[in-house]
Write a structure and sequence with these properties.
mainly alpha, 2 domains, 4 helices, about 65% helix, rod-shaped, Trp_repressor/repl_initiator, sequence-specific DNA binding, transposase activity
Amino acid sequence: MRRKWDAKTKARIVLAGLTGACVNDLCRAHDLRPGQYYKWRGHFLENSYRVFEKPPTEQSDAEMAAENEELKKLVGELTLELTSGKPVR
């Protein structure tokens, strides 16, 4: 039967191994195969740089309102253009 490991548990196990705990003892304690541990460790190390990336900035309410108004204006112009057959711009 396969177990599902949550990300926090995986990270805790990998960090324990990286900070000096014996990998064989860790694997034995968690009923984990060493190959699986090393797979997790590789994935952890490959993606660890993402911790230092800036999260995407969220738009403020004022910015979203301004963008919304601009889009409404554009939709209105395009609707007039389609119904009249003449470019509005």
